[in-house]
Amino acid sequence: MSFEEFQNCARLYVIGALEPEELKDFEAARKQYGSAAEDFINECHSLHEAFALSLKPAKASTAIKARLMSMVRERNKNQSGAEPT
Amino acid sequence: MSSSVDPSVQAAASNRAVQTSAKPIASAVELEPGVASDLDLMLGIQSGDAEAFSELYDRYSGVVKALILRIIHDETGADDLLQEVFMEIWNQAKNFSAQKGKPLGWMVTLTRRRAIDALRKRQAYARAAGRLQAEPERQPLAWVQNVTENAILARDTRVLMAKVVNSLPEAQQRVIELAFFQGMSQREIASNTNIPLGTVKTRLELGLKKIYDGLKELKDEL
Q: Residue A58 is part of which domain span?
C-alpha cells in the first residue's frame, strides 16, 4: 500500500468506515510507515471536529448542567472524604 | 443537498475567510483574551476541578447536543445523552492525552460513539417491535440550517467549517452523512442507497480528502 493509499484508508478509519477486510492491510501499512502513519492518523481526528463544528449549536438545558454540577461536586466531596488523613 | 444550504452562510463564510487575520488557535470556538483554553480546561477536569468542567459545558454543550441530535433526531433522548456524555467526559478525562489530539476531537469521538450506540439500540428495538419505518429521506441533509447572518458572524470557526463541508458535491456529502452521522459501514451505505460498493468507497475517500485538505487550508488562513 502506498502512503497515499494509506492516507485514504486513514481518513476512513478515523470515522469508523473501514471495512473489516481492509483493516488488515491498513494495520500492516500503519506498522510499515511507523511514526509518519501515527502522525497522519492523529491529524485525521480533526475531521471529527470539522463535522461537529459544521452543525448549528443546539440549545443545551441549564437543568442538565445543574444536575451534572451537583453530581460532580458530590463525587469530589465523597473522594476527599474517603482520602486518608 | 448543496442547494438547500442557506446562501447567507456561504456568503458570510467567504467574507469571514477573507477578513480573518493571524491568531493562535487555543479553542475550536472564539475565546476572549485571557480565557482558559480547551486544553487548560481538560487538565483542570483531570485534576477534579468542577469549575473547569462547568466552563467546558458552557463552551461545548451546544455543539455536543447538536451532534447528538443530528444522529438520533430526538430532543428528549438528546438531553439524556448530553448528560451521559458530559458525565463520561468527567469520568474519562484521565484518558485524554493532548499528544493524541485536541479536547474537542476527543469529546466528539466519545459523543458520536455514544449516540450511534443509542441509535442502533433504538433501531434494533423498532425492528423487534415491527415498527421500523423507512427513514433515509426523513431528515434534510444540509448540515447548517436557518442561520441568521448575525449568528454566523459570531461563530467564525463554525461557519468556516460549514463552508468546507458544504462545498462538497451532494453525492459525496450523502455518503459521508451516512458514514459519520449514521455510523454505517461502506456495505451498509451501498445496500441502503443502491450505489455500488466501489462507488461508495470512492465518494467517501474523495469527500473526506477534500474536507481534510480544506481544514488544512483553514488552519493556514487562521
A: 3-81
Q: Report residue B100 as a C-alpha cell.
A: 493524541
Do residues B143 and B7 lie in contact, with contact meaning Cβ atoms separated by under 8 Å?
A: no
Q: With H, G, I as helix, E, B as strand and everything else as coil, classify residue B116.
A: helix
Q: What residues of B are in contact with residue A78 (Cβ under 8 Å)?
A: none
How many domains does the structure of chain A reveal?
1
Residue B145 at interface with chain A, using a CB cutoff of 8 Å: yes
Looking at CA atoms only, how far is residue A36 from chain B in angstroms? 14
Residues A24-51: pLDDT tens digits?
999 999 999 999 999 999 888 888 888 8
Predicted model pTM: 0.76
Residues in chain B: 222
CB A1 within 8 A of CB A9: yes
Phi, psi at B37, each rounded to 5°: -75, 170
**Distance in angstroms (rounded) separating the CA atoms of residues A21 and B33:** 49
